[in-house]
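Quick question: what would this complex look like in 3D?
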Amino acid sequence: DAKTTQPNSMESNEEEPVHLPCNHSTISGTDYIHWYRQLPSQGPEYVIHGLTSNVNNRMASLAIAEDRKSSTLILHRATLRDAAVYYCILNKRDDKIIFGKGTRLHILP
Amino acid sequence: DTGVSQDPRHKITKRGQNVTFRCDPISEHNRLYWYRQTLGQGPEFLTYFQNEAQLEKSRLLSDRFSAERPKGSFSTLEIQRTEQGDSAMYLCASSLWRRGRNTQYFGPGTRLTVL
């Protein structure tokens, strides 16, 4: 399975944008880039996914490098409720999710 | 609330006992997944069903573990002869699988403590 590399933790100030990086240098042409997050004491929740083009939804934006070897999840205006572990995942279309350790995001008031 | 429910939310048992967990997915979802999560780690895939068929099992799923989804709706995960190493959060997820789409919706999990 193609692997992803994320920082163990990051901090950001409330109401500021947050850029969460993910490296996936061994990504294959059929791998989708997914982001899930896990709030404290909850199951993971879907955030966003993409293949080649940048994607936006109500939760976040996903910026994918032209060579697809890295991507960035962008939270446009972080709130305290965005404090969570963020997982960057590669998977084949329709395949199961293989989680790594993710990035623990701390939001400072 | 994602619409996926799990029961019980917490289970404390003694080593050697059997335990069973239940997952009720979102009603129209055809795929159902089980994961296990230990402290500080991401969830680990255990197994998944499409309708009532169990399509894949992880090597993590020892012979003591069995999962069923008899009518393609709810699922159960049973652990026989529990060991302390089985202590973890057991997560269930469901998805409406169709070509190119497989967003998974997770339940709140069942926390198992084996004494």
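Answer marked as accepted. The mean pLDDT of chain B is 93.
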